[in-house]
Amino acid sequence: MPIELNVSHRGTSHRLSLLPNDTITALQARLEELTSVPSSLQKLLYKGKKPHLQDDDTLSQAGLRDGIKVQLIGPTAEELGGMRAVEDERNRRERIMRERAAKASVKVRPRTRDVRSIGSPRAESKYKFHRIEALDHLPDPPAARTLLTRLANDPAIRHVMQKHSLAVGVLTELAPHEHPNLLGLNVNAGQAIKLRLRTDRYDGFRLYGDVRKVLCHELTHNVWGDHDDNFKEMNSRLNRDVLEFERSLAEGTHSFTSGEAYEPSSELEAEANALIMGGSHILYVSV
After folding, report:
1. Catalytic residue among 32, 173, 178, 218
2. What global pTM score does this model have?
3. pLDDT digit string (tens) for 77-134?
4. Residue 19 is part of which domain span?
5. Is residue 83 part of a domain?
6. What is the rounded (10 degree) CA torsion for 54, 60, 62, 64?
7. Buried-state track 28-50, b at ≥16 Cβ within 10 A, e below 16
8. In terms of DSSP bridges, do strands 170-173 and 132-133 run parallel, antiparallel, or are they unpaired?
9. In this structure, is residue 80 part of a structural domain?
10. pLDDT tens-digit readout, 142-195
11. Residue 218 is a catalytic residue
């Protein structure tokens, strides 16, 4: 006797009639015809899903019952082409930077700013996240938007963005299935920063502190493309600045007095290096 499945994908519902002995592969082929999401990139979410499914498992073995509601997550073939274009652009940019580094006799250093401008209305309006976007096709977009807003308004993050002249067009999330080996992505040196907010199983969100470390990493890519010594130096500096800012707030000593600067203690230096450059302690992989 056929079973009816209600599959939703990005707000559109699809009603399918299949036999209990049909395989997962057959279901995925039907869904690919309806949604243009390749079978290999489809992720099905539903109540009672059996773990460790195989392509040749039947629908009944997979826990799919008559009338069950299923959510499909995955990029379409057209979107996949766009992701490949971004990857090609990244490779092209890195190749150009390698060629420039091979030819140049003097390394270009990142710009520095007069600390007296930190906290000025002009800096606050320019060096920030100009837009926040959650992915509405993923579960619980309001919770994702709340987390992105918290990151964008984080006082320590706002402080380092103004101090180092860092602006980002769009702060959004990176779905685990889109780039499974990445926790963050910086597109075109700050045009957009995408962060992995969710767990791999889409059953919750990653720890705020871990996501914020990835954000510091991606902000560094606004200035440096390659993961070279220049990148590592600035990445460590951003994390030291975050730690020092929060520690000074806790002690009630931080202010934006004109001409103020600080020298991080050796303790802070060690803490930041352990977070960012500690070999096996590196918490993320990104481009």
Report:
1. 218
2. 0.50
3. 777 776 666 666 667 777 777 776 776 544 444 444 444 444 556 656 788 999 999 9
4. 3-73
5. no
6. 140
7. bebbbeebebeeebbebebeeee
8. parallel
9. no
10. 999 999 999 999 999 999 999 999 999 999 998 878 778 889 999 998 999 999
11. yes
